[in-house]
From TrEMBL, chains A, B:
Record's protein name: Glycosyltransferase 36
Domain of life: Bacteria
Stretches assigned to the Glycosyl hydrolase 94 catalytic domain: 313-716
GO molecular function, one term: hexosyltransferase activity
SUPFAM superfamilies to which the protein is assigned, alphabetical: Galactose mutarotase-like (SSF74650), Six-hairpin glycosidases (SSF48208)
GO BP annotations, alphabetical order: carbohydrate metabolic process
Domain Glycosyl hydrolase 94 supersandwich: residue ranges: 17-299
Matches recorded under InterPro entries: 6-hairpin_glycosidase_sf, 6hp_glycosidase-like_sf, Gal_mutarotase_sf_dom, GH65_N, GH94_catalytic, GH94_Enzymes, Glyco_hydrolase_94_b-supersand
Alphabetical UniProt keywords: Glycosyltransferase, Transferase
Amino acid sequence: MEHLFASTYGYFRADGREYVITTPFTPRPWGNVISNGDYAMMVSQTGSGYSWRNNAGQNRITRSFQDLIQDNWGKYLYLRDLDSGQYWAATYKPTCHQYDHYQVRHGLGYSSFEQIVQGIHSILTVFVAPDDPVEIFQLTLTNQSDRQRRLDITSYVEWLLGFAPDEHREFHKLFIETTPEPEFHALLARKYLWGFADELGRHNNIDWPYVAFMAVSEPLKSFDGDKESFIGLYSSLEHPQAMQQPTLAGRSGRFGDAIAALQVEITLAPGERRTVVFTLGAALQGSEDPLALIQRYTSVTASDQTLQAVHAFWSRLVDAEHVETPDPALNLMTNYWLKYQAISGRLWGKSAFYQVSAGYGFRDQLQDCQIFLVCDPALAKRQILLHAAQQFVEGDVLHWWFSIRGGGPRTNCSDDLLWLPFVVDSYLQETGDVAILDEMVPYLNGPAEPLYLHCKRAIERAFSRFSPRGIPLMGDHDWNDGLNAVGTQLRGESFWVAEFLYTILERWIPLAQQRSDEAFAERCTAVRTTLRWAMNRYGWDGEWFLQATTDAGLPLGSQQNEEGRIFLMPNIWAVISGITDQQRAWQAMQAVSRYLLCDYGTLLNYPAFTRPRSDIGYVTRYAPGLRENGGVYTHAATWSVWAYALLGDVDHAYEAYRRICPPNRSADIERYKAEPYVTPGNIDGPQSPYFGRGGWTWYTGSAQWLHRVATHWILGIRPQIEGLLIDPLIPATWERFTVRRTFRGAIYEIEVLNPNHVNRGVISLEVDGQPLAGTVIPAFNDGQTHSVRVVLG
Amino acid sequence: MEHLFASTYGYFRADGREYVITTPFTPRPWGNVISNGDYAMMVSQTGSGYSWRNNAGQNRITRSFQDLIQDNWGKYLYLRDLDSGQYWAATYKPTCHQYDHYQVRHGLGYSSFEQIVQGIHSILTVFVAPDDPVEIFQLTLTNQSDRQRRLDITSYVEWLLGFAPDEHREFHKLFIETTPEPEFHALLARKYLWGFADELGRHNNIDWPYVAFMAVSEPLKSFDGDKESFIGLYSSLEHPQAMQQPTLAGRSGRFGDAIAALQVEITLAPGERRTVVFTLGAALQGSEDPLALIQRYTSVTASDQTLQAVHAFWSRLVDAEHVETPDPALNLMTNYWLKYQAISGRLWGKSAFYQVSAGYGFRDQLQDCQIFLVCDPALAKRQILLHAAQQFVEGDVLHWWFSIRGGGPRTNCSDDLLWLPFVVDSYLQETGDVAILDEMVPYLNGPAEPLYLHCKRAIERAFSRFSPRGIPLMGDHDWNDGLNAVGTQLRGESFWVAEFLYTILERWIPLAQQRSDEAFAERCTAVRTTLRWAMNRYGWDGEWFLQATTDAGLPLGSQQNEEGRIFLMPNIWAVISGITDQQRAWQAMQAVSRYLLCDYGTLLNYPAFTRPRSDIGYVTRYAPGLRENGGVYTHAATWSVWAYALLGDVDHAYEAYRRICPPNRSADIERYKAEPYVTPGNIDGPQSPYFGRGGWTWYTGSAQWLHRVATHWILGIRPQIEGLLIDPLIPATWERFTVRRTFRGAIYEIEVLNPNHVNRGVISLEVDGQPLAGTVIPAFNDGQTHSVRVVLG
């Protein structure tokens, strides 16, 4: 077996869809994880995984904050030898047992835990059904000893049935009811209280609208629905009282601390193998039948079929695009893991080890949904329309909202609303589907209008928040949430918002013209002119661009500053937006290369703040080098690749990419301390003693963008209204790469040859054997496969 | 040693100030406690104990929600034998070690953990300094083996430094900094983020304003400030990595998961005894010096002195009143534990095992402060004025508020505001200090006015919320928070609020007249007349009084109801308020006796709701028999004693008291499952399979009231404006009881004799040897002790 990337902890399997770990734990950067963490949790947190309910409007499995089934994140299966009385678990936690072999494989939509303990080989494979809210635990045991073994298997989960984390379990558990269904080998759970207000705004007055269940494929030996009798007064999950007793206590009802513990017994002859299946799910009352779900999934055959369906499900999403380049890390991440992370972690799971999201962020999942553009643009469209519906007629938006029942904060954030026209433009470039602009979408406080008007209202709202100098106001903050004190009095300015708006206007002026909205097009043109002038007049600090001015008029990201002298965002977006001339663009990016591009990616600012500044905001309160305070904030670091590429600076573009591409950190995993197959939200900067340490993996908007900068700006395959542009910017050492991807209803098999070892420059382009002038391949829309041969030189 | 009450778990020491437990755990009713719980937590939760900061305006030690030092509630001391490498802890958790002896003593303001493990006898005594924000851990070790022992002692706490519970540790820990101070054998901790908004309303933009510390009396062998290195990636607090390594890792700074682990080493010759002192505290930046606090308290001498000061501190508060009756449970609770619970748990600690309070409840601590009336009325006065300052000029109040920085919800609760005039009246009865009515107190939205006008505005606000039938509206809810859907549309009525208002008006009419506020007195009189008529016209259900009508006009607490047919509150308050005639009063209380007075106290309603009713509220969502849904809600159950006593129904009064007096549950502790020395918030009713199980101990307003009904309505010693009324209502079997208490600056030593074994009726009364006509002893105000001899007959 080929190990593409191997580290102390594990390696990728050759096809890149599995990461194999050979110790009980992957590295986790911060300590909380240690005491709570276990693999079962990681699986469920990170697979398509933990995900429980069909999310309204999504029709996909998702775990959502409002609707979590479990309180304790561990889902455990205890194994007990009934002759010796010794017990262990199918995962390392909670029993922390001795083992002869231990290996975990994380794949797309599943994880498998394999071990040999006391002569019993076990493989636990965990996954969620693609089309129903059911998690499946498939446990296969093989007796490798030379004597018959009598074992029992005991599941353990704690019912939560509501908001997570539950900050007052003692109260909420009073409303849960568990009911055994012995005929179905199951325990059901309901909750008579849900944290949302009812129609009259009264809290604590509605049911949790699901029926949760745990079931097992074998007849029950015994069960327990109460934590107290399971653990015992004097003990813990590491050695629960239940493992000292012949059977479980059989408690259920409304008066305990609700769990689901199901116990089954099996006997294994020497060499014999048996599979037992546990299921965990939640059925919407009135439209789903928990018992039918149990029957549908709780068998060996059904679980085998469902695992195959999981593979097919993810294959459809990831295999619509495939790249092969000389860079195996780029291939691995682009083909599988970034898509998987963006879709399962961000768009559907909405949570990770370090963060449980309360819903959709307006900017966040809007950017993320660009990951669907190649494989299923309809899903991107649905997400766009969903976000548009979170807008007010005044143009501003809910900064985030609960994805189940709606509701969220209306703030003075200065950029969230602008991501709507930005992402609509991306969608148009990929699909050419201008009909989306006529989709009627309601406002939160007004009747439906075409999506075009939603975007226009967002832009016009941004127009209403300018400083007298012609720079957009910072408001409560811009993309950098931690700048939350810079401009709350509506005097401080954001130079980055100037650039971002400038970028969007460039794209929206032609759209307005196409719709004969001349007045708006002219207004946008005028604003664009002002922005360019004002930005270069007031935003230039001499060697780079300023980030902001504060309400008091002080500069941020200036040579005048001792800390926070230079910020990444205004300098890379100066290039991305084209708001400045080539000379300043180069100068700004030279400063980025000099001060911000460090060994582990591009820093968000430098030097970090070492002292809190109450006129800037909480970014200054982080330890210096952490997250937005002088760390590599991965989301923004991906954009530095874009900016370097736009300048044609291939070396820096590729370095800025390579240094944050996770598999490249496999070799120094003890420093990196994060999973090498997903992007982290941040990487410690040079002022941290843990320089290079990855933090907050999975739940980060960087996954989609790292995918996008690789395909669009390194491989240079960029959808445009007119067709598919081919403009690679690659290391000169590359001989060749291929990209297979769908584009507007056809498949493009693109081969790019680089015989002269250049970085850039298409000298010939053939489609289906015919030469094509220019670098834009037309949209064929014919359902066929087209071969594209490109030669650089 | 005499054991007043012994149970499976422990017994009281003869003087009643200690409860001794002989297993590692006291019983805990609900399961969550199991996995989180340990004795260290219990101590600190329940002593004067956990309590960290001088609370603004209180100048007392208190633990407050906004200001908690620790995240993990455990505070552990590991003991390790350096020759054998074996380790255990000074408490049973987290190591769950084998022991030869284990005993815990909970006293007023301290707890002691005594054990013998591997030949080492240890006593850990934990307490908080009376005058500084310092918790002290005094550990005395004795080598009972016959060889020299080398040991090290390692502390472990997790820094939180902010709101508890912390629902997002991964974020908040990024703002904590730890700094070793080896010269002081200490580790300091600061946090650069606090959950409160700054002056401009910006969140996440201020420092936590304290410096926390942990220190030890011996020189440091090593230390660690990081959870990851202490526990290790693969382990837990039960067997941390630190115990496998010769010294601690020595990490500190801003980049870990902050803890305080201090390690010291000692050598003990056979028979040798040594004491080591750890301290934990938090100094307010700018006004307190953490190093000075460390030096002041971190020594054996200082800790001994401080423990003596703790004893003296609590003695002053509890010994100002002492009763001796033939009922040892009544004596124990009245003399010590109810005072201690009300003051330490409710007024200062504001938290318990089951609930961490966010501040002061308007009604809650206002009632609780009556516990100060005998021992220190000035503290009651301060609390009253504090609450009055949480009122709006419109008369309504913050339902609760953060006790450190203020702020809380303004609701349509119908009774909270009325507790101000109610408790002011209690204060006046005890002290005669009518000058309090002239205290100038500001409103939240208006300038200061005399307290009298605050009370008047509360009453007038209540006047503005009546139904057309002359009954007060329920609003968002009344005393019973769970009735939170009955009247939110301002149509539903609360008959209990009618009675409560009637009670208050009786007392405030003469006060208004004394202040020549004739118009108000007349208005009150008129309202009182209406209330009486309307209550008896619309509130009487035939055999008892209704609780409420809903917005839809449906009755609650009526024979028409299948569930919730009868409620306790309107029936006992019909008697307490005097709103009805004697016949209906008796009839209502007969219904209480028949349907509500169960083996374990008086139920709040019956039958319990078994199905959620969205037009009533979350009370119907609890399991039937739990808490406000058909359980004994202890706060209200104390008032049933008052009502029976007012009727002269001594048997029921005494039974209603006896059944909820906690030590009486010692014998059936396996059913009760709660500490037998504090009141629980509730006791399961007969519809629960755990009928008789106590729940949510410590943080309950029932403590103060159980004290009050015993002294005022059973012993019958009731302060009144004119003097001290003596009107006992006692079991006929009692021969005699004594009460020593302060009253308006004098000490009254009261002996009540009952030679004829009656229940009630004073036939003679002598003061200082002189007969006195009537039953009211005048206020002497002379600082002297007066002996009072009372004969019943």
